[in-house]
Specification:
The chain has about 240 residues and is of the alpha/beta class. It has two domains: about 90 residues, Cobalt-precorrin-4 Transmethylase, domain 1 (3-Layer(aba) Sandwich); about 120 residues, Tetrapyrrole methylase, C-terminal domain (Methyltransferase, Cobalt-precorrin-4 Transmethylase, Domain 2), CATH 3.30.950.10. The strands form three sheets. The protein has a five-stranded mixed β-sheet, with helices on both faces. It has a four-stranded parallel β-sheet with strand order 1-4-2-3, sandwiched between helices. Strands 5-12-11 form a three-stranded mixed β-sheet. Strand 8 and strand 9 form a beta hairpin. It binds S-adenosyl-L-homocysteine. S-adenosyl-L-homocysteine (SAH) binds next to helix 5, strand 8 and strand 10.
Length: about 240
């Protein structure tokens, strides 16, 4: 299970590169496979469409049982809204297949770098996708995180079907945080069309994200300093 980072080769770990080099087959959603294909042209590639995660994992397990060394690629980190857990569940107690999870730079980290230092203090990562989690639970987590004055990184902030989810999330955060709270969005991190933008929480409420966007909501101390989104760690106070 290989986390390939946000998209550009430079943000992949050396260990991930080694894992891909030493594999015979690379399996993944076609968008992620296309991100690494040019760097490993001699490999055999297997792709499946989006939302066929279990099928993809079963394919990888079958290939491994045939004796091949298989790399399943996920964007960012394979354990963060990725398939590392699913492959362990599907493998179960089958000792004939070894599983190794190779860490990758998750979007909260790579996106945070683009904005400045938004996550220098306690933060929560919340996905707005209700495909696998009921909205009520997502809403409760948002409420708790905002009440706890956590900075929040939002994954899966929206899609065509879920165009108002970010607005709903902002309304929950606004119960506890000021409309002037500093926020940022980063799109297509490490990929073509990368863009970052700072805004207030009230502006974020009107923003319509796509599925390649990661959203950052600051806490009550987050500021803009020299064009960067910064959540002070507090060093200057000690
Ligand atoms: N395993 C991935 C997350 C997969 S969930 C990771 O660790 O980063 C998919 C969500 O992740 C997207 O909707 C988006 O919010 C975020 N994301 C992943 N890659 C991104 C990228 N290159 N640019 C911006 N957001 C990204």
């Amino acid at each position: 299970m290989v986390g390939i980072g946000p998209g550009d080769y430079e943000e992949m770990t050396l260990r991930a590169v080694d894992a891909l080099r030493s594999s015979d087959a690379i399996v993944g959603y076609h968008v992620y496979v296309d991100l690494v294909r040019d760097h490993f042209p001699e490999k055999e590639f297997f792709t499946t469409p989006m939302r066929r995660e279990a099928e993809r994992c079963r394919m990888a397990l079958d290939l491994a049982r045939e004796g091949r060394e298989v790399a399943v690629v996920c964007s960012g980190d394979a354990g963060i809204y990725g398939m590392a857990g699913l492959i362990c569940e599907l493998r179960g107690e089958d000792a004939s297949v070894e599983v190794e999870v190779v860490g990758g730079l998750t979007a909260a980290i790579s996106g945070g770098c683009r904005l400045g230092a938004p996550l220098s203090h306690d933060f929560a990562v919340i996905s707005l996708s209700d495909l696998l989690t009921p909205w009520e639970r997502i809403a409760d987590r948002l409420d708790c995180a905002a009440r706890g004055d956590f900075c929040i990184a939002l994954y899966n902030p929206g899609s065509a079907r879920r165009s108002d989810y970010l607005q709903r999330a902002c309304d929950i955060v606004l119960r506890h945080q000021s409309p002037q709270t500093i926020c940022g969005i980063v799109r297509n991190i490490g990929r073509e069309g990368e863009a970052a933008q700072l805004m207030t929480l009230s502006e974020l409420r009107g923003y319509v994200p796509d599925m390649f966007t990661t959203v950052f909501i600051g806490n009550s101390t987050t500021k803009v300093i020299g064009g960067r989104m910064v959540t002070p760690r507090g060093y200057r106070d000690v």
